[in-house]
TrEMBL record:
GO terms for molecular function: 5-aminolevulinate synthase activity; glycine C-acetyltransferase activity; ligase activity; pyridoxal phosphate binding. The modification N6-(pyridoxal phosphate)lysine is found at residue 248. Belongs to the class-II pyridoxal-phosphate-dependent aminotransferase family. Pyridoxal 5'-phosphate binds at residues 115-116, 189, 245-248, 278-279. Homodimer. NCBIfam families: 2am3keto_CoA, PRK06939.1. It catalyses: glycine + acetyl-CoA = (2S)-2-amino-3-oxobutanoate + CoA; succinyl-CoA + glycine + H(+) = 5-aminolevulinate + CO2 + CoA. Its EC number is 2.3.1.29. One of its GO terms (biological process) is L-threonine catabolic process to glycine. It comes from Bauldia litoralis. Substrate binds at residues 140, 372. This is 2-amino-3-ketobutyrate coenzyme A ligase. Pathway: Amino-acid degradation; L-threonine degradation via oxydo-reductase pathway; glycine from L-threonine: step 2/2; Porphyrin-containing compound metabolism; protoporphyrin-IX biosynthesis; 5-aminolevulinate from glycine: step 1/1.
Amino acid sequence: MMQDAFIEKLETTLAELKAGGLFKTERLIAGPQGGHVDVALNGEKRPFVNLCANNYLGLANHPEIVAAAKAAMDDFGFGMASVRFICGTQTLHRDLEQRVAQYLRTDDAILFAACFDANGGLFEPLLGEDDAIVSDALNHASIIDGIRLCKAKRYRFANGDMDELDDRLKQARSDGARTILIATDGVFSMDGHVAKLGAICDLAERHGAMVMIDDCHATGHLGDGGRGTPALTGVEDRVDIISGTFGKTLGGGIGGFIAARQPVIDLYRQKARPYLFSNSLPPPTVAGALKAIDIAEKADDRRALLASHASRFRAALTDAGFDLIAGDTPIVPVMVGDAERAQQMASALGARGVYVAGFFYPVVPMGKARIRTQMSAALTDADITFAADAFIDAGKQLGLI
Ligand SMILES: *Cc1c(COP(=O)(O)O)cnc(C)c1O
């Protein structure tokens, strides 16, 4: 029986979050994910233009992916009721691993329940207390947690600060590190910019370090063939380990992966704890991801539309006087100041039929709250115009512009 005093403490914490404008609520979508979504409000469905899904290529409800998932359910069933190494590996799972490896041009790949788990299991099997990890300060929470689970020494450099990275690498060497791994997001999802992978690989080579990239916000829609930030920045053969997700561009289902050289993947199969001790991905999800890669690889038309939406939307908001973070991805963050302002802006946009989310502490630093918008190939040109007009109208109402 939980003690009343403990429950009261939790209630106080929740009340503090609400008082600080930091309390997150969830709206209910009453239909599929897409460029337009129906939101359930007071027993009604209201249509919104959706600017906050990770549905970059618009594949989350693609009919061929839905059909592939249904067919796999008929042929392979609903669930596996096993981890991979006991009796949870179907031909489908190996097909997807080999397809990811072929797509990203690595020896092999290994599946996880999510990229959060992939990053959780990425470091500990490879590195021990004689080794070092040098990590960008803006890296995703799952990388931070994965590093915490590993005994390697930790070094951090300010986001994109190559001088500091150089210093940390020297430091790690002079502290006697045996193996050094640099860890970075390919795209920093809160700011929407691409890591300086060319410079990172140069420094890695100079100091004899390896490079790991979490490419969740890039695989499928950035770079040639959608092969992500290594392809975009021309470092495909200089990166050692890539982690990624099937929960964003590649169908938006669930599942994560790590792609790397054969012995790396082989060791993960023996030792990565989230792989060993968690259930195998369900067949429909695996088949959907396979189909999503087939579509994404050939989707130059969708990638072009996505890029055109991003530049049109950026231009419209910049011209109107909004404060944006500069970038070259379909993530367009509109800065608003504090958390309460972000919530007010999100609801003012909601009232105008645009679905966005305010991002604020602890997801981004205090005072750097924002509306993070994300473009999608599921959106039309008219949707982009509609959304930009709504931002301008709401921004004037709240005195942001
Ligand atoms: C979304 C995301 C993850 C988590 O991916 P899931 O498959 O949803 O667990 C990890 N890293 C980065 C950079 C992400 O954007």
